Amino acid sequence: MLWSDPENEPPEELRDTEQMLRRAGLVLAVAMVLSMLVIGL
Question: What parts of the sequence cross the membrane (predicted)?
């Protein structure tokens, strides 16, 4: 990669969507763990 290459920053919408997906994945993971605990009890 050359120093003269333009920065390939993703557009604002893409970053927002990525952040929302990451948050949704985290919530889903926590929900799965909690449901496993409830089923175990």
Answer: 20-39
Distances (CA, A) of 35 to 5, 6, 11, 17: 48, 47, 36, 26
pLDDT in tens, the chain (41 residues): 566 666 777 788 889 999 999 999 999 999 999 999 999 98
Instruction: Report in angstroms the alpha-carbon separations of 6 from 9, 14, 18, 36.
Output: 9, 18, 22, 47
Output DSSP code: residue 16: H
